[in-house]
Every structure is written in C-alpha cells, then in structure tokens.
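Appendix B, Record 12. Input sequence as logged:
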Amino acid sequence: MRSTLAAGSAEAPAKRSFREVWLITLGHALTHWYPATFYLLLPIIGAELGLSFSQIGLIMTCQYLAGAVANVPGGMLVDTVGRKGLLMAVSLFWVGFPYLLMGFTHSYVMLLACVMMVGIGNSLWHPTAIPTLARRYPERKGLVLSLHGMGGNVGDAIAPLVIGTLLAVFSWREVVVLNVMPGLVMSAMLLVFLGTLQLGAKKTAPSREDASPQSPAEYWIGVRELLRNRSLLLLSSSGAFRSMTQNALLTFLPLFLARELGYSPFLTGAAMFALQAAGFAAAPVAGHLSDRMGRRSVIMTSMAMTAVVLVFMAVAGRSHLFIAFIAVLGFVLYAIRPVIQAWLLESTPKNMGGSSIGILFGAQSLGSSIAPLIGGVIADRYGLGATFYFLAGTIVCANLLILVMPKTEGAAA
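Logged structural output:
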C-alpha cells in the first residue's frame, strides 16, 4: 500500500496548491446552503399549507428518495464521461433552481416535485468532487475530504442564520427568490475556473489522477468487482443509518424548537447554526486524526457519543439543557462524514471512485428518505420528543456495522 502511494506521489508535483480544494469546498458549501435554508422554511410552509408532521416528513422523504435513485447513475456518469468541472456546475445549479420554483407554487404536489429535483441535482456533486480530491491528494485524504466536508458545514451553519434574519423582513417566497443568486454565481465560477485548472493540469502533468474516462466494457468489469466488495456494503449500510440520524434530526429539530419551545425563526436559525458550527470545528480534527490513528477508531467513538447525546436530549425535553446538547451533538455527529468517505475510497478500486461514492450516497439518501417519514409518524403518535429516541437507535445500528468491518484500513496500511 505504501509503495503504491509513494509511486503515485512521485508522479505528482512535490507541493500541490490547495486552490482546487478551496474552490470545490466553496461549491460544496452552496450545495448544503439550499437544503439548510429549506429546513428552516419547513415550519412556515407547513403552517401555511396546513400540513401534518407526516406530510412534512414526506417532503424530505421524496427529496432523498430521488437522490437515492439518482446517485448510482450519477457515479456511473462521472466514471465514464468525466468533465468534472461541468458536472459540478450543473449539479449546483440543479440544487438551487428548484427552490426558486417553490416560491411560485401553492401546491403540495408541486412542492414534492421540486424537492425531488433537488435530490437528483445533489446526486452529481459528491461522486464528482470527492474522488477528484482524494486522487489529487492521496497522502492527505482524511484532511482534504474534511476540508470539503467543512464547506458543507459552513453552508449548513450560515444558511439558517442568514435566512432566519431575512425572514424577519421578507416573506418566505421572497427569500427563496433572493436565495437563487449565490448558486448561479458559484456555478459560473466552477465552470470557468475549475475548467481552467483541469486544462492546465492536462498540459503540464497528465498523471494518473487525471486519467481518461473508462470505456463501457472496462467500467462494467469494475462494477462486478464493486458488487463483491464487503467493505463497500458495510460502509454504505452504516452511512445509511448515520444519515437517518442526521436528516431526521434536521427535519424535526427546527419543528421542536419552533412549536415546543416557541422559538422565533431567528432563534431557531441560531440554534441550527450552533449545531452546524460545532460540526465545522470537528471535521478537520477528525480527518487529521483518522489519517494518523485509523478510520475505525474515530468513527466508532463519534457514533457512540452521538447516541449518548441524543438520549440526553430526549430526557432533557423542554429544559435549557436541550439547547446545550445541540452544539455537542453537532460536534460528534458531523465529524465522521469525510472519514467514512476516505475509508470507502481506500477500500475500493481507484478507477471506480465515482461509482463507489455514488453507491455510498445512494444508500445514505435512501436512509435519509425513510427517516423523516418514520420520524413524522412517531411525532404524530407519541410527540416530537419521542423522535430523539428513534434517532439514538439509528446511530447505534450504524456503529454496529462498523464493528464488523474488515480489519485492514487504508489509513494504517
């Protein structure tokens, strides 16, 4: 393993600029900005349309179910077609534009159609961006993917704060119209600057990481290998349960704060900011530690702590301790996303990186699609507080799957 990495690094420049990392990370921030905005709008939209908790849960179920279906074809497209700058620009535009359409609809069915479009657009980003960064920085996978993950945390953290402030002045329909502009600008930047960087890389150093797309025959040989990969199956299944925890939390935490604790949109946005800001701080720490100590120990520690904090939140109920636990939860829950991604890419063939990430995110989207609906049914029957016990159970399941992962780890090899 070390000899392979050494050979790869010998072909690459000794010092690689991080400007591609920051460009892709900024784009990733905006792919999370739009869904984070929508989580804050859900209580308002639900009240305006008279939706039950189950109907609100179904909205997020449709979004992530569409993503689950589209992630695997998205990975296939990345591995066989290439054109990464174009694919990332299209993905970002496709994530942001449907939210603009929501501002002009009063139909629940149209709302479901728009969020499904968001899920499809999001399916292109991760299979393109994550393998690209991992191949370009092979010795620093955990750190680089953590920086990429931080971009998502920045989008998740800042959006509720900004949108919560805007909602104090504008209606939610006006806010979604204003909100489309950052995505349009960033899509253009990705298309122009990332395309320029890729062209420059091909002219100066055509290395393995910039290899030509595979032929269909080569690709399907790789698919057969992937389907026999136990690590891919276990990590994807664990990721699905972790995503059930994360996305049901993002759906029902704003509802709990708004309806049970009586928080204003601004205070709800501030609480969601605390959740994401803590995750932002944790990501590079977890990524660096996983490069040094191994992926398994970091993931298992984080998941175990997440389960404990969720149980404490359920017990805390309407007390002020509930708010304190939000920041702690953000720190432990979001730290492991890039670590799972790095471990997966080390456990699967390099030329199938897009498909491997597509399968991971497809499984995660499937978990994300199921959890809000289940959480909505639990909330309707037993109250919103009961959903936190459900979330603790899902993260325990995720951790149990990590326990049976093969002992070989790329970080330690």
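The first helix runs from residue 2 to 11.
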